[in-house]
Amino acid sequence: MSGIFNSSIGRKFAMALSAFFLMIFLLQHFAINILSVFSPEAFNNTSHFMGTFWIVQYIFQPILILGVIFHFVMGMVLEVRNRNARKIAYAKNNGNANSTWMSRNMIYTGGAILLFLGLHFYDFWLPEINTKYIQGDMSGLLPDGNYRYFEELQHKFVDVWRVALYCLAFVFLSLHLLHGFSSAFQSVGANNKYTRGLKGFGKAYAIIIPLGFIFIALYHHFNY
Amino acid sequence: MKLTLKIWRQKNADTKGKLVDYQIDGIDGDMSFLEMLDVLNGQLINKGEEPVAFDHDCREGICGSCSLFINGEAHGPDRLVTTCQLHMRMFKDGDTIHIEPFRATAFPVIKDLVVDRGSFDRVQHAGGFISVNTSGKTVDANTIPVNKHDADMSFMAATCIGCGACVASCKNSSAMLFVSAKVSQFALLPQGKIEATERVLNMVKQMDEEGFGNCTNTGACEVECPKGISLENIARMNREYLSATFKG
Ligand code: SF4
Ligand code: FES
């Protein structure tokens, strides 16, 4: 057991586990966000619950942040190691002949997602932490007595540049998932008669979920 | 066929190499790629120049010696063939062909297109074997029943010729396809079960020590492998490794 994360397979396994965790989180995030399109009230109630329930706040949230950091740091470590494994590049390398662009550029699509996460934290997470834990306002209410979450969300999607950046980030997320989803299963050793179906499901997930996030952003941009 | 060749020339392991252009004429589509290089070398020798060094032995796709990176692909543009089985009919008159050695830190260039794949041998030595009593009481392998599916899968893994095209093709220079084939061929058979735990742990450890990169499942290895070794083997090795690790 010792040193599992010092081995290539151990690192790969850890990368896959954090990926599974992040993919489940993404699904849950999407499920809550899409509520904002159908029912502002349901969105407000769910947001308030997630924002104040202690298990979510003090257990899931730190785990999530650690998961994100781990996935990125490990991604960088692997990239550096892999670059060292071939110090002289080929003069001509026809990568398209044997692999997808997505699979070869995970570090770049991942980097773009990391940049977006910076913006996302600045937009949503920091104001949340400020309101709740610095100003100590756990009520989730506006001065008019209504929940603040839906209105805050709408406000963020007024600026066309932010919406454009947001949409672009989800294109990168889609590209990342197009390889990442099935790759995570292969890494944990799952390659069997279900793999073909799983790959199809992974492609659907990688396209539908990011597209859904883009739809939500555009919906609020044009309906405000 | 008239061709322009851009060939990596490097005097020895300690010098810097570079691509050198050569013009060659009269190449027949039925020649193999190595025969084309033989023609070139004949011409170079006649001119009093140093011939291009490249690895080869069987020239029929079984030894795994030949190892050229041709026009951006290990063993060239054809599928399921080694460089020695690659025919010149895959190219057109007037083509420019890049010929480079397999590149990986774990495969240092010895001269021109010849690389040292001793790292593969060391991975094999670390566990790519089974211990059999050869004192005269050896039990015939055929007396041990093996189900057909496992026997076939094991055989398919055993067709790996250790050429290194998987490493050369992988953007990470990972040796996972090779090592997984060597782990799988035994993991699937009763004879291999006894040493299964140490085998996978030792081989992976050696693989990492040799400086091969980390697999990110691009699948390039499977596409370029002349023997069609499947990624399923890598998944199997991951399982073997994880269960060996958690076992102790
Ligand atoms: S797995 Fe395929 S490409 Fe890799 S060494 Fe074996 S035969 Fe060559
Ligand atoms: S020379 Fe033996 S496989 Fe090509």
From TrEMBL, chain A:
<dbReference type="InterPro" id="IPR034804">
    <property type="entry name" value="SQR/QFR_C/D"/>
</dbReference>
<protein>
    <submittedName>
        <fullName>Succinate dehydrogenase / fumarate reductase cytochrome b subunit</fullName>
    </submittedName>
</protein>
<feature type="transmembrane region" description="Helical">
    <location>
        <begin position="55"/>
        <end position="78"/>
    </location>
</feature>
<feature type="transmembrane region" description="Helical">
    <location>
        <begin position="106"/>
        <end position="125"/>
    </location>
</feature>
<keyword id="KW-0812">Transmembrane</keyword>
<dbReference type="GO" id="GO:0016020">
    <property type="term" value="C:membrane"/>
</dbReference>
<dbReference type="InterPro" id="IPR011138">
    <property type="entry name" value="Cytochrome_b-558"/>
</dbReference>
<feature type="transmembrane region" description="Helical">
    <location>
        <begin position="163"/>
        <end position="181"/>
    </location>
</feature>
<keyword id="KW-0472">Membrane</keyword>
<keyword id="KW-1133">Transmembrane helix</keyword>
<feature type="transmembrane region" description="Helical">
    <location>
        <begin position="202"/>
        <end position="222"/>
    </location>
</feature>
Automatic annotation (TrEMBL), chain B:
<protein>
    <submittedName>
        <fullName>Succinate dehydrogenase / fumarate reductase iron-sulfur subunit</fullName>
    </submittedName>
</protein>
<dbReference type="InterPro" id="IPR017896">
    <property type="entry name" value="4Fe4S_Fe-S-bd"/>
</dbReference>
<dbReference type="Pfam" id="PF13183">
    <property type="entry name" value="Fer4_8"/>
</dbReference>
<dbReference type="InterPro" id="IPR036010">
    <property type="entry name" value="2Fe-2S_ferredoxin-like_sf"/>
</dbReference>
<dbReference type="InterPro" id="IPR012675">
    <property type="entry name" value="Beta-grasp_dom_sf"/>
</dbReference>
<dbReference type="GO" id="GO:0009055">
    <property type="term" value="F:electron transfer activity"/>
</dbReference>
<comment type="similarity">
    <text>Belongs to the succinate dehydrogenase/fumarate reductase iron-sulfur protein family.</text>
</comment>
<dbReference type="GO" id="GO:0051537">
    <property type="term" value="F:2 iron, 2 sulfur cluster binding"/>
</dbReference>
<dbReference type="InterPro" id="IPR009051">
    <property type="entry name" value="Helical_ferredxn"/>
</dbReference>
<dbReference type="InterPro" id="IPR025192">
    <property type="entry name" value="Succ_DH/fum_Rdtase_N"/>
</dbReference>
<dbReference type="GO" id="GO:0009060">
    <property type="term" value="P:aerobic respiration"/>
</dbReference>
<feature type="domain" description="4Fe-4S ferredoxin-type">
    <location>
        <begin position="151"/>
        <end position="181"/>
    </location>
</feature>
<dbReference type="Pfam" id="PF13085">
    <property type="entry name" value="Fer2_3"/>
</dbReference>
<feature type="domain" description="2Fe-2S ferredoxin-type">
    <location>
        <begin position="1"/>
        <end position="103"/>
    </location>
</feature>
<dbReference type="GO" id="GO:0022904">
    <property type="term" value="P:respiratory electron transport chain"/>
</dbReference>
<dbReference type="InterPro" id="IPR006058">
    <property type="entry name" value="2Fe2S_fd_BS"/>
</dbReference>
<dbReference type="InterPro" id="IPR001041">
    <property type="entry name" value="2Fe-2S_ferredoxin-type"/>
</dbReference>
<dbReference type="InterPro" id="IPR050573">
    <property type="entry name" value="SDH/FRD_Iron-Sulfur"/>
</dbReference>
